[in-house]
């Protein structure tokens, strides 16, 4: 028999509650990859991230800035220019992203098969 889960395992005082959960968000990972080679402007990010709305991208960037993963630089120019860049903390995510990509690559056949089997038995 499996032991009961601790009801306080995610207590507000637990350090894991401060974890930036958005690192599992698909847009955050994609932004990290877009910024890997250096700073980018918002519209530059929109090119490969064309499936994300401007609102969601802006929210993602704000969350990443709040958690210290990126820096936002606003330049007093006409028209205004804003660039986003990974911080040293944000760059540490590159190792995690690489590990997740490797895992997906190694397990893609099993993932696709599991999804197909699930859809076949539960098409809703």
TrEMBL record:
<keyword id="KW-0238">DNA-binding</keyword>
<dbReference type="InterPro" id="IPR036390">
    <property type="entry name" value="WH_DNA-bd_sf"/>
</dbReference>
<feature type="domain" description="HTH hxlR-type">
    <location>
        <begin position="14"/>
        <end position="112"/>
    </location>
</feature>
<keyword id="KW-0805">Transcription regulation</keyword>
<dbReference type="InterPro" id="IPR036388">
    <property type="entry name" value="WH-like_DNA-bd_sf"/>
</dbReference>
<dbReference type="Pfam" id="PF01638">
    <property type="entry name" value="HxlR"/>
</dbReference>
<protein>
    <submittedName>
        <fullName>Transcriptional regulator, HxlR family</fullName>
    </submittedName>
</protein>
<keyword id="KW-0804">Transcription</keyword>
<dbReference type="GO" id="GO:0003677">
    <property type="term" value="F:DNA binding"/>
</dbReference>
<dbReference type="InterPro" id="IPR002577">
    <property type="entry name" value="HTH_HxlR"/>
</dbReference>
